[in-house]
Design goal:
alpha/beta, 5 helices, about 210 residues, 9 strands, about 25% helix, TIM Barrel
């Protein structure tokens, strides 16, 4: 039982409510979307087949209780839920970051699902699977990547119309690095009193924004 793996690395969690915490990242290969602002294009094609047991063995070497499964799009691979369940069984806290186009229904509910709802500037807004909103638990999180004022208005409408009762702490609005300034997005959120969190990519602030493995 194996997965197509792009990379495994240890760093600080750069996004989500876990920002700033040490985390082991398991980046799986392949993606079904082609977002205009994608910062992990290499994950589409860089791939090595690795047994789940070996992936877990490598995760253990970092001696870190927090693990994020990311991509690419990790749910493209049928064995991803098995990896998540095995890590949970070993008492790891597991985050799954997914682009929202594939069902999260069968993901172990102990896993914290971070659902990325694509905005218009990604050119992939139509890919979102709305039924995923029905599977969210209180501890799951939602992310909107904001590349323009139009994206912000899209996210605002989505929150008001589809997610009016979601806890604000788990809703993240993240500006596309170099396209929307944090100051602009902060002003929009405050002006509208929007119940959401301004989420900056911590790893791009600490390190070179193009650096891999951080």
């Amino acid at each position: 039982m194996a997965l197509n793996l792009c990379e495994i690395f240890y760093s600080l969690q750069g996004e989500s409510t876990f920002t700033g915490l040490p985390c082991t990242f398991v980046r799986l290969s392949g993606c079904n979307l082609n977002c205009t602002w994608c910062d992990t294009v290499y994950a589409r094609d860089e791939s090595i087949s690795m047994p789940i047991k070996k992936i877990i063995d490598q995760v253990k070497t970092f001696d870190c209780s927090l693990v994020e499964i990311t991509g690419g799009e990790p749910l493209l691979q049928a064995q991803t839920p098995e990896l998540i369940s095995r890590l949970l069984a070993l008492n790891f806290q597991v985050l799954l970051e997914t682009n929202g186009s594939l069902s999260i229904r069968d993901i172990d509910p102990r896993c914290i699902r971070i659902l990325d709802i694509k905005c218009p500037s990604s050119n992939e807004a139509d890919a979102f699977l709305y039924e995923n909103l029905n599977y969210l638990t209180e501890k799951d999180e939602i992310k909107f990547v904001i590349g323009s004022r139009q994206d912000y208005e899209f996210a605002r409408a989505m929150l008001q119309e589809n997610l009016p009762k979601r806890p604000a702490a788990g809703i993240h609005l993240s500006p596309v690095f170099g396209q929307v300034t944090p100051e602009s997005l902060a002003a929009w959120i405050l002006e509208d009193r929007l119940p959401a969190r301004l989420s900056l990519q911590l790893h791009k602030i600490i390190w070179n924004p193009h650096q891999r493995g951080v």
